[in-house]
């Protein structure tokens, strides 16, 4: 089945996705700043358990790290406590008197087109970022525009009396803040909102700005949906391959992630241009990063599905069972990798030190290894099954005492459908360690019955049986002549044992049963024609009136052997190549009317 796009645009899924998008954006905004501060404190407590931190006195303003400085400044202006906000600026003696005014002006610059990096992307380390090529004491955290000129916002590291780091908005940044800011136009959000929602505030921000964010989110999603659907329609009309696999699947995989990412980008741009307060915009910073990460992971997940299904259909079309098993396994493994990557990304975005957490696992690594021993063993077993490919999906095999057809090879276990139609689930760790007998790889099937004939059979009768039984094998079109042989292998307590060894030229077991049946019936006719018979595990008491074996048939068989000997044509112990060629395919198969001749 190929995935195709219809030119008609369906509107039904939009409300559900829009609601999910809007609710996701507003989820973090419902968290009070104090709750976020508590979360940060908990994360720092957790990190101090494994990382040694110098014993500096606590900075009550939280300025030990760049992230703490930015969060503290935003909280101070949200509380309209500009005297406190001034403590986050690097001021000289002359500027300290204007500290409150400079903090207020910086807020206005940020509200009118300025931006701050999302909290999760600002360093939460005492040393700041060391990979930004800005020097060890500088971190860039955003940008602002003053008098038509855009400049970067930097934090610089200073030291308090105890020698501990204190991060402040740099002196260079403070110098770019104008002492007297020109009258700025009223933000678009304040113009279109009723006065009552502009004058009344919640969280230090006009209530109207919160409503404006909701409208901007809806508008962003609608615009993104329209743009993506328009591009999709144009591709379908102008590019014929857009309706064919795998291109159609790739386009479908990109549709929703691109739509959500475009909506997120529009949400950022429109909220900034509409003059929404920096306080509100920073409320959404963490969640927007998480949504962006989720969109990327969603794209990876969909691409794994698209290419997995494409390769799966291709393997089925070419009847490549080994490749099919590998594709199914790798698709599951790729999805698990996407999930692990997502969890690590979300934890890192929320501020948890993932590296420290992974290192902490070393403390309990032994307990974890013991608890997950079977899980790891099964995973390694599944990798072994895929790499060595002793079995594939659809193979008929025997594993231990279990005989059946392989249905699935999972990451933990393999399921086998038995002849009783039951499903046996075997952990891959146990599966890979057992003796595996794969019947699906047979190119031919072994035919090897052993006949026990009566002990009163004469040597010439035995020679007759050896010749005639081998003649059947060489003459049969379904028997490999190179492997065909019949030998007297032993004298038992109640029988002479004749062993038949040959390979039937078929890999279909049902057809093998038909051929085996035909061969056995023909060989029974030969035994009967020899005047002998099959021996049974019993004792025979001969009485005087017993006629014994057939003298007529015995003489006929012995006479036949004498004729072969006189003509130097007795094919024992080996048939000549000319005789084998003359016998090839001389037996009609399938037999006429079901009777062997």
TrEMBL record:
Gene3D superfamilies: 1.10.287.1260, 2.30.30.60, 3.30.70.100. It is found in: Cell membrane. Residues 335-373 form the Mechanosensitive ion channel transmembrane helices 2/3 domain. Residues 547-597 are annotated as: Disordered. Residues 547-566 have a biased composition (Basic and acidic residues). Residues 450-531 form the Mechanosensitive ion channel MscS C-terminal domain. It holds the Pfam family MS_channel_3rd. GO terms for molecular function: mechanosensitive monoatomic ion channel activity. Residues 375-440 form the Mechanosensitive ion channel MscS domain. Keywords: Cell membrane, Membrane, Transmembrane, Transmembrane helix. The chain crosses the membrane at residues 207-228, 249-268, 284-304. This is Mechanosensitive ion channel protein MscS. The keyword rRNA processing does not apply. InterPro entries: LSM_dom_sf, MS_channel_1st, MS_channel_C, MscS_beta-dom_sf, MscS_channel_2nd, MscS_channel_C_sf, MscS_channel_CS, MscS_channel_TM-2. GO terms for cellular component: plasma membrane. It is a multi-pass membrane protein. Belongs to the MscS (TC 1.A.23) family.
């Amino acid at each position: 089945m190929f995935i195709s796009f219809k030119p008609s645009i369906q509107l039904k899924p939009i409300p559900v996705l829009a609601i999910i998008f809007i609710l996701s954006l507003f989820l973090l905004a419902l968290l009070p700043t104090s709750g976020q501060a508590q979360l940060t404190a908990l994360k720092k407590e957790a990190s101090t358990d494994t990382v040694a931190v110098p014993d500096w006195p606590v900075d009550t303003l939280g300025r030990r790290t760049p992230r703490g400085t930015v969060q503290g400044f935003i909280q101070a202006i949200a509380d309209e406590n500009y005297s406190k906000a001034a403590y986050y600026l690097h001021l000289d003696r002359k500027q300290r008197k204007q500290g409150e005014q400079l903090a207020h002006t910086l807020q206005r610059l940020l509200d009118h087109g300025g931006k701050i990096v999302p909290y999760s992307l600002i360093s939460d380390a005492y040393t700041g970022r060391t990979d930004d090529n800005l020097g060890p004491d500088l971190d860039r955290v955003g940008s602002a525009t003053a008098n038509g000129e855009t400049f970067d916002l930097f934090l610089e590291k200073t030291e308090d009396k105890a020698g501990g780091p204190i991060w402040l908005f740099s002196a260079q940044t403070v110098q770019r803040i104008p002492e007297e800011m020109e009258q700025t136009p009223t933000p678009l959000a304040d113009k279109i909102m009723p006065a009552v929602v502009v004058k009344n505030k919640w969280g230090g921000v006009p209530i109207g700005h919160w409503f404006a964010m909701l409208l901007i989110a809806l508008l962003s999603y609608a615009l993104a949906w329209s743009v993506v659907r328009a591009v999709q329609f144009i591709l379908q009309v102008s590019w014929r391959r857009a309706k064919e696999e795998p291109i159609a699947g790739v386009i479908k995989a990109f549709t929703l992630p691109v739509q959500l990412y475009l909506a997120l980008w529009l949400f950022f741009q429109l909220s900034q241009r509409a003059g929404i307060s920096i306080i509100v915009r920073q409320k959404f910073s963490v969640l927007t990063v998480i949504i962006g990460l989720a969109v990327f992971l969603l794209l990876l997940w969909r691409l794994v599905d698209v290419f997995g299904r494409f390769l799966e259909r291709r393997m089925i079309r070419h009847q490549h069972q080994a490749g099919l098993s590998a594709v199914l396994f790798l698709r599951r493994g790729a999805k698990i990798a996407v999930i692990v990557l997502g969890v690590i990304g979300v934890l890192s975005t929320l501020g948890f030190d993932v590296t420290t957490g992974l290192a902490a696992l070393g403390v309990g690594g032994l307990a974890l290894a013991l608890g997950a021993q079977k899980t790891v063993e099964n995973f390694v077993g599944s990798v072994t099954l895929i790499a060595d490919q002793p079995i594939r999906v659809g193979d008929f095999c025997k594993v231990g005492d279990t005989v059946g057809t392989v249905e699935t090879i999972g990451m933990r276990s393999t399921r086998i459908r038995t002849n009783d139609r039951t499903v046996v689930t075997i952990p891959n760790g146990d599966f890979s360690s057992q003796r595996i007998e794969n019947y699906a790889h047979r190119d031919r099937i072994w035919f090897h019955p052993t006949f026990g004939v009566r002990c009163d059979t004469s040597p010439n009768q035995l020679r007759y049986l050896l010749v005639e039984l081998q003649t059947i094998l060489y003459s049969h079109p379904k028997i490999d002549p190179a492997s065909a042989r019949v030998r007297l292998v032993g004298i038992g307590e109640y029988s002479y044992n004749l062993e038949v060894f040959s390979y039937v030229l078929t890999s279909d077991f049902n057809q093998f049963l038909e051929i085996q049946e035909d061969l056995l019936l023909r060989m029974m006719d030969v035994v009967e024609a020899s005047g002998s018979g099959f021996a049974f595990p019993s004792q025979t008491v001969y009485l005087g009136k017993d006629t014994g074996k057939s003298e007529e048939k015995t003489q006929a068989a012995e006479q036949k052997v004498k004729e072969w000997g006189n003509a130097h044509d007795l094919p024992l112990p080996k048939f000549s190549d000319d005789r084998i060629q003359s016998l090839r395919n001389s037996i009609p198969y399938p037999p006429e009317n079901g009777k062997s001749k």
